[in-house]
Write a structure and sequence with these properties.
By secondary structure, the chain is an alpha+beta fold. Helix content is 31%, strand content 13%. The protein is built from 36 helices and 34 strands. A hairpin with a 2-residue loop joins strand 17 and strand 18. Helix 17 packs antiparallel against helix 18 and helix 32 packs across helix 34.
């Protein structure tokens, strides 16, 4: 099978920064809002009652945010009047945290300093005025690194009094410890703000500096807004003091959403580099402070710098991998010199690093001797791909705020997420839209919004937007937005828009969600604790790997917690979906017509009506209903959610034991692909080349240094190949595969369920092939109706279907070929069978009903013409006796002298499903038994006697008397078949007058004797056509399809002892059945749950037995395999019983030695197209066995031309005359239907469904082809597979201009090629004694003990229901001298085949034989012992084998 090409890892590499045409943002066009230019570096406490004043450079906080006076200890009795002061500057590292410490109650945080004294060396205890109170001090933490231009620090401090109605200002952090510890006075809290304090900065819109590749891909062109997202706060020009340390690069991520909902992930790093002063204008230099305002002279000690960004775009959120790659590229640009240019490493990473696949799950990329990264395949998950991090959400917001945001997202509120860390914004934003799965956010979503696109915050629609916190230093935020500060773990709600309380959610699911999130938050805190310094480095490294695995597990549990809540909240929603049954109205896609909104709302508790009422009115829910009602790309995800809904229990107050998400993490694989760094060019004389590449800043990419793609079609090859459009929904979803696997495991323990499970997968194979069958059929409606009949047949036989693929494929085909009414009938059949359609099936149904053209509501003209036709034919029937009487009077004959005229064809009921016009062909003739009492009696000219001037319905060719054969054999056996000649062609075995007698024909008296013989026969009577079959798995050998030749004569059965005697004449003995299964089927047959129908007019025939045209090829198939351990023959039902539920296991188990082995299908292909036609052989007095070659071939079932005398072939199994045709034998593995279905789905997905209609299937994938052919023929399912052989290598082209050839397929129960020295089985010896030529090649000589009296004795015991005596006699004979040492067939199999050969298939009830055999074996269990019987292979088939044979039926031939 073709290897699927993996997707591309990186699509584009982009460099963004200040371009030539960059425009200044609004910040530069309008006056700046007041904002601090320097961070706070010191805090102090002064006591004014002690005469302390504000130190120089400090600012004292004397009022709260609303203007109330703030004394730090106003509640104390002797108020010392203590105030808080702060100082700004850049002379030392800024403060990054403030706090309050209660001495004796808690410990100071690590790295925090205690503010214990005032600037005047007095105690700074805030509770100093009350000796009985605990000592309270302020704490602060300073940045450890030297001061930089972009260092985060405290930029503002304020005090709030909640009792005065004051709240924490937006973007401020609040210390939740009261500064006033006394019992009197208002509570006072300290708040501070952290930001980047900078001045002398110009902000411009970012532009594109360079990119690779330079040409856009057809599937994904580079968006123009990428540079803006790379630098969300704009491309800046900044003025730094000389000697300022460069800040570390800042990593950020963003998400771009296309019009179709596809996401593209971007990873970027922002860095600073020097900017040439000469490129600045005078106005810019003044704004930056580089020129003095008075005399315009350069200001010494300052230098300009700019901000740039490098970015990669990908469809995969490998953020950690991209961060390492971008950091390597950045370090490469600021170091050097290097031998290779920077462009070489970029192009090498984009072209030579493959995407991880199942075959190579780990990619280790060595970028340099010191830099490497590991790329692992994403975890296979049924959830949509996302860059979400639920742990980051919990870490920054906590469980309670996370649940509050869940309510906000479900009710579609305006959410503005902000933080000073741009990489956190994308992770949290992705988590917010992922926590509401299966709902999908439909409104604007920008997890990292650039400053240039900040106008979206004023949109009148709901949105989820993430933005840098410095936005609030530049603009006034909107009033109707809910602010989420990730840095302070706070949610700010405006008065205009209040959130629903989490209490509005369903109580028990919300309680379980909160408990799970609190537990995960505690585990995350423990995980983030750093290891002790005393641990050795190797332990620290191993702990880091374990922590990574543990973090991934916690991430999965957090996602499962939100998934469980959504499953509980939407439980039962599928029962309120409304399928489109009648012709859809113009508003058919409206949510109200697709879903019972009020019914769903009434099904919920009244306490939660407000929440559900808001949820049902959102675009989230409306789109969800449309996705569930119509086919979409979200079908696997929605189906997975349905399985989660079935698993959860709403009333539980703890999570279920069964996990909702079962993921297969491929990162634990051992196969790792190593990618080496780019090769360095060799210098002269093999010396190391000089290092020539050094960069002052990040360069503009030079196209001549970039390596081009190795293949110009790499973009097309890297895209994942999908199923061919001509194969509608053939592949099961991953969830359906898992469910089918679990069903197979449970069914393997119950024999009946196991057989039905295998049968269901076989039908799944045929429906997977159905699109190919319908495309090849000339009458599409008839082919679809046939598939619908097969569905009904499956339901009647209670076939266990592990999935809904059968219904789904038929529904989509109905939509594809414009048959919506049939699609409705399929849905009704599903409901009648108790199957609730899942999301995938339901979507294809509604799509077929909505997009197809419905028939007119009034009766069409075709139906009216059919009614008129019936009226005319009825009137003609009444007038026919009058015309006959007039003709008799004109001829002068007395009344009644002539035979009754042939009856008119019956009236046809015209329907909208399979109606025929007046010009359509008459249905194929039905089959009747020649031995019945009601066979038609017509003269040879009866077919030509129609109405005056009316041509016959089908032309009838008179058959010569010499070639005519009666429909029944001389003894009136029931296996003979005649054709009802009310209309249709005559087969080669019967003429127009076969019902009334003829040369070698039978009289009605003989027919009556045959009917009485049938009624008195001890075998099982075949069920009447009007009655349901008693055994759906039994296959009647006497049944035959339209146009097939009659089988060889069968022996006459009688209740007397003549049943056990060899016949004197070959035509009175039972021969091997020549009934072959082709693609022309009869659904009225009740054998083995199979179904079929007569072929459409003009459809190619695949059975050479029909009509007078000989088959071009004859194929013999046998699944009987030899066990390599004990050399026993294992037959088809035993092979099925030995298969396992593993869809990757090819082995079966031997029922005798329990050894596992791979069974094989044995195939013999006979090419009959080049066989010459010798002159007829005259009759010989020696009898028809050896002289009448045509008669021998008919008895032997060889692939000669039926009805052609003198056709050469094997006679009695002896190759006395070399066969003139080509013969080929091959063998391939015999696959379990579970394995075969998995392989066929993979084949259709990789190579398309068209391959199933081409002869390449036979040559390239022979195992799949022959197994499909075996199962389709075994279940009598129509297919075009046999015709593919005519174009394969097994059938070389005929040099002569051939006529349309046909293929006949025969299924054999026994081996196809026996061992030459092996003793023939008993049924072959019986046929040899009966002078019946065997079908196979020469057998070895029969063993002396296996004589004719021995066989007659066995049959006598079996006939008298004394099977235990037959077993005992057989065991005694095996112990006699001359008996074969090795018995390849079991005793059960020998007796069964002997009974079938002597009595005939139609007179043998195999199920009754099994019961008698088991009963007889129980009687013998005490004599030689059960172990001895088992050693001698006397045990019957297992229960699983019997059930498999009952469901599938036995193959028609031994």
């Amino acid at each position: 099978m073709a290897d699927e090409k993996p997707p591309q890892l990186v699509d584009y590499f982009v460099v963004a920064g200040l371009a030539e045409g960059s425009r200044a943002l609004e910040e530069e066009q309008q006056p700046r809002p007041a904002r601090p230019g320097e961070p706070i570096t010191d805090v102090a406490v002064i006591i004014r009652s002690q005469g302390e004043e504000v130190p120089q450079g400090f600012t004292c906080i004397e009022t709260s945010t609303s203007g109330h006076p703030v004394d730090l200890n106003a509640g104390l009795l002797n108020n010392p009047q203590m105030f808080l002061c702060y100082k700004r500057g850049r002379d030392k590292p800024p403060l990054i945290e403030l706090g309050v410490h209660y001495e004796g109650k808690d410990r100071p945080k690590p790295g925090c300093q205690l503010l214990d004294t005032t600037p005047y060396s007095r105690s700074a205890n805030l509770a100093a005025g009350s000796p009985g109170h605990q000592r309270t001090f302020l704490t602060f933490r300073r940045a450890a690194e030297p001061p930089g231009h972009h260092t985060l620090g405290v930029t503002d401090i304020c005090l709030v009094m909640p009792s005065k109605g004051e709240s924490t200002p937006h973007t401020f952090c609040r210390v939740d410890k009261n500064l006033n510890t006394s019992m009197w006075g208002p509570a006072l809290f300290l708040c501070y703000k952290i930001a980047v304090a900078k001045d002398n900065t110009l902000v411009y819109e970012a532009g594109l500096l360079s990119r690779y590749p330079e040409q856009d891909s057809e599937s994904f062109p580079l968006p123009e807004s990428v540079p803006v997202f790379c630098l969300p706060m704009g491309a800046t020009i900044e003025s730094w003091p000389v000697g300022t340390k460069y800040p570390l690069p800042v990593f950020s991520t963003f998400v771009l959403t296309g019009a179709s909902g596809d996401k593209v992930y971007g990873a970027a790093i922002q860095f600073h580099e020097a900017f040439p002063r000469e490129r600045l204008s005078e106005a810019q230099a003044l704004r930056l402070g580089l020129l003095s305002v008075v005399d315009r002279r350069p200001v010494p000690g300052r230098s300009p710098h700019t901000r740039k960004s490098i970015c990669v775009l990908s469809h995969w959120p490998f953020f950690d991998v991209f961060r390492k790659f971008l950091m390597f590229i950045y370090r490469y640009s600021i170091s050097g010199p290097h031998v290779l240019p920077l462009e070489t490493h970029i192009s090498h990473f984009m072209h030579n690093v493959p995407f991880p696949s199942p075959q190579r799950p780990r990619i280790l990329v060595q970028m340099s001797p010191y830099d490497s990264l590991l790329l692992c395949r994403p975890v296979s998950s049924p959830l949509p791909l996302s860059g979400a991090s639920f742990l980051t959400l919990l870490q920054n917001l906590g469980p309670d705020n996370a649940v509050a945001l869940l309510v906000a997202v479900l009710t579609e509120q305006k959410l503005l997420i902000h933080s000073l860390r741009p990489d956190v914004l994308t992770s949290v934003g992705e988590a917010l839209v992922a926590m509401i799965f299966p709902l999908r956010w439909q409104c604007p979503y920008i997890p990292l919004c650039p400053l240039a696109l900040a106008d979206v915050l004023c949109a009148p629609v709901p949105f989820i937007v993430g933005i840098h916190s410095s936005y609030f230093d530049l603009y006034e935020p909107p009033r109707d937005v809910i602010f989420v500060d990730l840095d302070t773990n706070t949610i700010f709600q405006s008065e205009e828009r209040k959130l629903l309380s989490p209490r509005a959610l369903p109580r028990k699911p919300c309680k379980v969600l909160l408990a799970s999130l609190h537990s995960l938050s505690q585990q995350l805190d423990e995980l983030l604790s750093t290891p002790g310094e005393e641990e050795p480095p190797e332990l620290v490294l191993s702990d880091a790997e374990a922590a990574g695995a543990r973090r991934a597990q916690l991430e999965l549990e957090a996602r499962a917690a939100f998934l469980r809540f959504m499953a509980c909240a939407l439980r039962g929603y599928r029962s309120f979906l409304r399928p489109i049954a009648p012709a859809p109205a113009p508003a058919g896609r409206d949510a109200g017509s697709l879903f019972a909104l009020q019914g769903f709302l009434r099904s919920r508790d009244r306490a939660y009506q407000r929440f559900y009422g808001q949820l049902l009115r959102t675009q989230l829910f409306t789109q969800f209903i449309e996705d569930c009602s119509f086919a979409s790309d979200r079908e696997p995800c929605l189906e997975f959610f349905d399985t989660c809904v079935d698993k959860v229990q709403v009333d539980l107050e703890k999570p279920e034991d069964t996990p909702l998400m079962e993921l297969d993490d491929p990162r634990g694989g051992e196969h790792t692909v190593f990618i080496t760094p780019p090769e360095q060019p060799a210098g002269p004389d093999g010396a190391e080349p000089p290092a020539r590449y050094r960069y002052d800043g990040f360069p503009t990419l030079r196209p001549e240094l970039l390596e081009p793609p190795r293949d110009p079609l790499v973009a097309q090859l890297c895209q994942a190949r999908s199923s061919a459009p001509s194969s509608p929904a053939p592949r099961r979803t991953k969830q359906e595969m898992k469910v089918a696997q679990r069903v197979a495991q449970k069914s393997s323990a119950v024999p009946e369920l196991w057989a039905r499970c295998l049968l269901g997968h076989c039908y799944g194979l045929w429906f997977l092939y159905l699109p190919t069958q319908v495309r090849a059929a000339p009458a599409k409606l008839r082919a679809l109706q046939l598939a619908y009949d097969v569905l009904r047949k499956m339901e009647q036989h209670k076939v266990v279907l592990p999935d809904e693929v059968c219904y789904r494929i038929l529904m989509q085909l109905c939509g594809q070929y414009g048959e919506p009414v049939l699609s409705v009938r399929v849905l009704l059949e599903m409901k009648r069978a108790g199957i609730v359609p899942n999301t995938v099936t339901y979507g294809y149904y509604n799509k077929a009903v909505l997009e197809s053209k419905w028939p007119a509501g009034t009766q069409g003209g075709r139906l009216r013409w059919a009614k008129l036709r019936n009226v005319v034919l009825g009137a003609a029937q009444f007038r026919q006796p009058l015309r006959q009487r007039q003709r008799q009077r004109a001829a002068g004959d007395p009344p009644g002298a002539r035979a009754a005229a042939a009856p008119r064809p019956p009236l046809h009921r015209q329907t909208t499903w399979a109606g025929r016009s007046l010009r359509d062909a008459v249905p194929a003739p039905r089959l009747v038994k020649s031995g019945s009492l009601s066979f038609p009696a017509r003269s040879e000219g009866g077919a030509a006697r129609e109405g005056p001037g009316e041509p016959p319905l089908l032309p009838v060719t008179p058959t010569p008397p010499a070639a005519r054969r009666p429909p029944g054999s001389a003894d009136g056996s029931l296996s003979d078949i005649a054709t009802d000649d009310s209309g249709g062609d005559e087969g080669p075995g019967g003429g127009p007058g076969a019902g009334a007698g003829g040369a070698g024909g039978v009289t009605p008296r003989r027919g009556l004797a045959a009917k009485l013989q049938q009624l008195l026969s001890p075998g099982k009577r075949p069920p009447r056509p009007s009655e349901p079959p008693r055994d759906p798995g039994a296959r009647r050998g006497s049944e035959q399809r339209d146009g097939d030749p009659p089988p060889p004569p069968q022996p006459r059965r009688s209740p007397g002892g003549t049943l056990l005697r060899p016949r004197e004449r070959p035509e009175s003995t039972a021969s091997e059945s020549s009934v072959s299964l082709g693609s022309e089927l009869d659904l009225s047959d009740a054998s083995g749950g199979s179904g079929g129908a007569p072929k459409a007019p003009g459809e190619p025939c695949t059975d050479g037995g029909a009509g007078t045209e000989p088959p071009g090829l004859e194929v013999l198939l046998s699944s009987c395999s030899r066990c390599p351990g004990c050399a026993a023959l294992v037959f088809d039902e035993e092979l099925m019983a030995g298969w396992t539920s593993d869809d990757s296991n090819l082995n079966t188990s031997c029922p005798f030695c329990c050894r596992s082995f791979v069974p094989f299908l044995s195939i013999e292909i006979r090419d009959l197209r080049r066989a010459p036609s010798p002159p007829p052989v005259p009759p010989s007095p020696q009898g028809p066995v050896l002289s009448d070659r045509r008669r021998c071939l008919e008895l032997d079932g060889t692939p000669g031309t039926p009805g052609t005398p003198g056709t050469p072939g094997l006679c009695n199994g002896c190759a006395e005359t070399p066969p003139p045709w080509r013969r080929e034998r091959v063998a391939f593995a015999y696959l379990c239907p579970l394995v075969l279905r998995k392989e066929l789905e993979s084949l259709v997905e990789n190579e398309g469904g068209e391959l199933l209609a081409r002869p390449e299937l036979v040559d390239k994938h022979p195992i799949i082809f022959w197994n499909l052919l075996w199962f389709f023929q075994r279940l009598a399912l129509p297919s075009q597979l046999p015709l593919l052989l005519l174009g394969s290598q097994h059938a070389p082209p005929d040099p002569q201009p051939p006529e349309p050839s046909r293929v006949r397929v025969r299924l054999l129960w026994d081996v196809l090629s026996p061992e030459p020295e092996s003793c023939p089985p008993l049924y072959v010896i019986w046929r040899l004694h009966s002078s019946i030529p065997p079908r196979l090649h020469p057998w070895g000589p029969p063993a002396p003990p296996f004589s004719l009296p021995f066989l007659e004795a066995l049959l006598s015991h079996v006939g008298l229901n004394e099977v235990h005596k037959a077993i005992g006699l057989f065991l005694e004979t095996l112990a006699a001298p001359g008996a074969p040492q090795t018995l390849h067939r079991s005793i059960y199999r020998e007796l069964l085949f002997l009974t079938l050969a002597a009595l005939g298939r139609e007179h043998t009830d195999i199920a009754a034989f099994d019961r008698r055999y088991r009963s007889a074996l129980a009687k013998l269990g005490g004599a030689p012992g059960r172990d001895e019987l088992r050693r001698r292979r006397a045990q019957p088939p297992s229960a699983r084998a019997s059930e498999c044979r009952r469901c599938f039926g036995a193959p028609p031939e031994c």
